[in-house]
Amino acid sequence: MSRESRLRRRICFVLLLPAVAIAEPQDRKNDCQNTPQVISNPQFTKEEAGQIKTRVLEGRLSIVISDAGDVVDARVIAAKPKEAAEILASAIKRMKFKPRPGCKPVKIDFVFKDKITPDKNH
C-alpha cells in the first residue's frame, strides 16, 4: 500500500469519526430531555391489597428514576388512606421505566390514584 493511499484512508477516517461522535450525544440529549416512559405500572401484592382498608388508593409522590429505568427513591408526600403510605411506596418502587443510558437520574413528582381490586394485582 502506497503512502498516498494510507494518507487518504486516515483522512477519510478522521472526517467520518467526528460525524459519529456528534450523532450519539445529540440522540442521548434528546432522550434525556424527555420524560421517562413507563414500562410497567405499580402492582400491589395480595398481602398489600389485603392491608388496604379502602379500595381506592390516592397519593402524591416524588420518585427518582435511574438511567437504567429503575425507581431508586420513592417518597410519599401524602396518601389517602394515610396507613397505606408504606404500601404505596413499596409498589411504586417496583415500577419500571424505559432505560435512558447515559442520562442523569431524574426526579418526578406526580399524583397516583387507583382502585385496588384482586383481579388487577398479583
Quote the average pLDDT.
78
The DSSP helix count reads 3
Note the run of SSEs as H and E.
HEHEEHEE
- Biggest sheet, open or closed, and with what strands and sense? 3 strands, antiparallel
Distance between the termini: 66 Å
Total DSSP E strands: 5
The residue fraction in helices comes out at: 25-40%
What is the CATH class name of the largest domain?
Answer: Alpha Beta
Which strand-content bin applies to the residues? Answer: 25-35%
CATH architecture level-2 label of the largest domain: 2-Layer Sandwich
- Count of domain modules: 2
Radius of gyration over C-alpha positions, nearest whole angstrom: 23 Å
Low-confidence segments, ≥5 residues, pLDDT <50?
A: 6-26
Query: What name does the CATH topology of the largest domain carry?
Result: TolA/TonB C-terminal domain
Q: For the largest beta sheet, what order do the strands appear in spatially? A: 3-2-5
| CATH superfamily descriptor of the largest domain | TonB
Structural class: alpha+beta
Instruction: Report the principal-axis shape.
Output: elongated
Quickly list its features:
single chain, 122 residues, alpha+beta, TolA/TonB C-terminal domain, three-stranded antiparallel beta sheet, two-stranded antiparallel ribbon, 3 helices, elongated
Could you describe the 3D structure shown?
There is one protein chain. The protein is α+β, with helices and mostly antiparallel strands and 122 residues long. Helices cover 38% and strands 29% of the residues. The protein has two domains: 1-33; 35-120, 2-Layer Sandwich (TolA/TonB C-terminal domain). A three-stranded antiparallel sheet has the order 3-2-5, covered by helices on one side. The longest helix has 31 residues, at 3-33. The termini are far apart. The relative contact order is 0.22. Mean pLDDT is 78; it is low at 6-26.
